[in-house]
Design goal:
The protein is mainly α. The chain has helices spanning about 5-30, 30-40, 45-55, 60-70, 75-85, 90-95, 105-125, 130-135, 140-165, 175-195, 200-205, 210-215, 220-240, 245-250, 255-285, 285-305, 315-345, 350-385, 385-410, 420-425, 430-445, 445-460, 465-470, 480-490, 495-505, 515-525, 530-535, 540-555, 560-570, 575-585, 590-595, 605-620, 625-635, 640-650, 655-665, 670-680, 685-690, 695-715. The N and C termini lie far apart (about 85 Å).
Length: about 725
């Protein structure tokens, strides 16, 4: 494998090659050549024959393989691309012979140029599998393939729109020649980029391994054999449909050259979508479900083509656009996911040889489909007319696609997500966004980016984020682990999350275990009770304090005894505060004397007093009434005149005087005296407990509220 720096440099240049190569390929092959041949007067049979030349390229892989040990895989790639653009030149000069009326010679020159172009291409694409394998690794290979495809689709969209605009309604042959010349120019630039790519020396040795014994050995690898037979059906179906969608649009629906090529641009959006889905999903969800989805999209496009009536109007034109979109989505997705699946079932040392077999099957299947399709169409047209001929043609294509779908459904999953689960992700914006975030998380080693991505994942609510977020619990960064735990607190609570949090609680003491125990408590994970109880007295004081609250949530009344004991024995204010919260959760009204009795300690911090009073208010069923008034008192103190008036309105005269003292004469002695005047108004349950309270502002306000609330309820 190449060193990381060379792989990264090679990837960047490979993507630039993809830009210029895609611009060139769009202008020199496929739909533009089909339109060009229609303009020259060719019939369906000739169009099918010349379209099949693109698949003939794959038979030249054997020639390329024999040259790799002597030339090197990347240098061979560059020289093959040089030859292919030279071989295409007869296509550019062919229109000159139209003036003499020698149409047969024109077709010969076009056919020879296209054939030479693809034969040279066949020699070069022996580098395809080693190239994508050499400039990536297992974790990001699907992403590289998909990025390359997305670049190709964007180039096709740009060229498609531009060419459609410039073609006009009925373009002259000379205008087609200009487009083809531009394609050759872009191809020469792409060839220059190839020669700048680093050589893959390891492939020289791979090419020396005998091919035929390896093919014979496929009998001992049923999964590879099953994949290749499935891929043959996919290639046949793609070969039939790829070259004749634009012919269907022209001949059945009478679209102009411009509008027909706009359909190609619309189809390229499907190509881009296939690349995007592959870039975010292939490495994460697996190739098999995406292959099934792509075949299904292709079958849907052929069935839609059968149903569209041969009439004009914007609705029909829109439907034709949908056919091109789905069809191209299927073509592109099939090849992309098939290639990714191929990499998943083969060993690196076998990929050059088996890659030749992969493309050979693509060539055989595509040739069968494309070559035969033109003759079948001509025969159908002669018998039942062009409209019904195409309908039968697309029904046959859909049938082949369904056979491929059935075969693909039986392929090994290779750890991939289920097809249904993949569809749920594809049609969920939330899950697609989550997968994009997960891919970013996987690629980054910057802790700041990791933290921001984890924060975004925390709000996704998607279960597919769980495994990757759990993995970040092993990060060496405290901040990253903290963000991962916060995310697990909001993501769906799966058994994997539960197990990971319990494990983290046991292993991350003195660091982030305190966050794990809090989440376990909030989630009600009763399986964690013993693990939580084990850290209640931990030397990690933050963990021990959080464990008190978690234990109360999980064990409830079963833990109240030990919680009372800790509350009575601890002098640490923070631990005391957590113990109050725990008793409030797990205890009952009979714990009220225990809580209020602790207020007799004169040196308690105010925040501990606050927690005790709030917990007591909850036991007295007056929390919702008490809390807003207590908050106003704490924040505004003696300036809260409206609060004083509110309390005095329902209080007996003696209590009203105490309220006046508390809010208007905040002298400690006066407040103590006011507090003693309240005691006789308390019920017997609270009188003895309240009698020992230190009469400070907070406790006197609490007593005032007790009496006022009771009087208000009785009134």
């Amino acid at each position: 494998m190449l060193p990381l720096e060379k792989r990264q440099k090679g990837r960047r240049r490979l993507l630039w090659f993809g830009v210029f190569n895609s611009l060139s390929f769009t202008l020199l092959t496929g739909n533009l050549i089909s339109l060009y041949l229609l303009r020259l007067g060719a019939g369906n049979s000739l169009i099918g024959v010349i379209a099949s030349f693109s698949y003939a390229a794959f038979f030249m892989l054997f020639v390329g393989r024999t040259l790799v040990p002597r030339v090197g895989v990347m240098r061979l790639f560059g020289w093959a691309w040089t030859v292919r653009y030279t071989a295409f030149l007869p296509v550019l000069i062919a229109p000159a012979f139209l003036l003499s009326g020698n149409q047969r010679l024109v077709f010969v020159l076009v056919g020879a140029g296209v054939l030479g172009f693809h034969l040279a291409r066949g020699v070069g694409i022996v580098a395809n599998a080693p190239m994508f394998s050499g400039f990536s690794d297992h974790a990001d290979r699907g992403r590289l393939l998909s990025q390359f495809q997305m670049i190709a689709s964007v180039a096709t969209i740009v060229v498609g729109v531009l060419v459609a605009y410039l073609l006009g309604e009925q373009a002259e042959v000379g205008r087609y020649t200009l487009f083809l010349g531009a394609g050759v120019t872009f191809g020469v630039i792409a060839t220059g980029v190839i020669f700048s790519l680093p050589e893959l020396e390891s492939e020289r040795e791979s090419a020396r391994r005998p091919l035929l014994p390896m093919i014979r050995d496929l009998g001992r690898h049923p999964e590879i054999r099953r994949f290749f037979t499935t891929f043959l059906l996919v290639a046949v179906a793609s070969g039939i449909g790829r070259s004749f969608l634009i012919v269907w649009a022209k001949q059945v629906h009478g679209l102009s050259d411009r509008l027909a090529f706009f359909m190609v641009a619309i189809g390229s959006i499907g190509n881009f979508l296939a690349g995007y889905l592959g870039s975010v999903l292939l490495d994460r969800l697996g190739a098999r479900p995406l292959l099934l989805f792509s075949i299904l999209a292709y079958v849907a496009s052929t069935l839609a083509a059968v149903l569209i009536p041969p009439v004009g109007g914007p609705v029909v034109i829109g439907a034709i656009g949908v056919v091109f979109f789905l069809g191209t989505l299927g073509f592109a997705g099939n090849e992309n996911s098939s290639q990714a699946y191929f990499y998943g079932i083969t060993d690196p040392e076998d990929r050059l040889n088996l890659g030749i077999l992969f493309f050979l099957i693509l060539g055989v299947g595509g040739t069968i489909g494309t070559f035969s399709a033109g003759f079948v169409l001509d025969a159908l047209e002669a018998r039942i007319g062009i409209v019904w001929g195409f309908r039968v043609f697309f029904l046959v294509t859909a049938t082949i696609g369904l056979l491929a779908l059935r075969r693909a459904s039986r392929l090994a999953s290779l750890g991939a997500k289920t097809f249904r689960g993949t569809l749920e992700v594809i049609f969920s914006f939330r899950d697609l966004r989550t997968v994009g975030l997960l891919n970013r998380l996987e690629r980054t080693y910057d802790p700041v980016t990791e933290q921001s991505t984890l924060r975004s994942l925390a709000h996704s609510g998607s279960p597919i984020a769980v495994v990757d977020v759990i993995d970040r619990l092993s990060s060496p960064s405290y901040a990253v682990r903290q963000e991962a735990l916060e995310a697990l607190g909001t993501l769906p609570y799966t058994p994997e999350v539960e197990a990971a949090l319990i494990r983290h609680l046991r292993e991350a003491i003195h660091t982030t275990a305190f966050l794990a125990v809090r989440i376990l408590g909030l989630r009600g994970t009763r399986k964690a009770i013993e693990a939580v109880r084990a850290v209640v007295d931990s030397e990690d004081v933050l963990l021990a304090d959080r464990a008190l609250v978690a234990l109360a949530r999980l064990a409830g009344a079963d833990a109240i005894g030990e919680l009372r004991e800790i509350f009575a024995s601890t002098s640490n204010p923070r631990r005391l505060m957590h113990a109050v919260v725990a008793i409030q959760i797990a205890g009952e009204r009979s714990d009220l004397p225990i809580l209020l009795g602790r207020l007799s300690v004169t040196d308690l911090p105010d925040y501990v007093i606050d927690e005790i009073l709030l917990a007591s208010a909850r036991f007295l069923d007056m929390y919702d009434w008490f809390y807003p008034r207590y908050s106003r008192y704490i924040r505004h103190g003696e300036s809260a005149s409206s609060l004083a008036d509110d309390l005095a309105a329902t209080a007996p005269p003696e209590i009203a005087e105490a309220i006046n003292v508390l809010f208007n004469h905040p002298d400690p002695d006066a407040i103590r005296q006011a507090g003693t005047t309240i005691l006789p108004h308390l019920g017997p349950e609270l009188h003895d407990v309240a009698a020992v309270l230190p009469m400070r502002g907070r406790t006197v306000f609490f007593l005032i509220c007790l009496v006022t609330r009771e009087r208000s309820n009785s009134g």
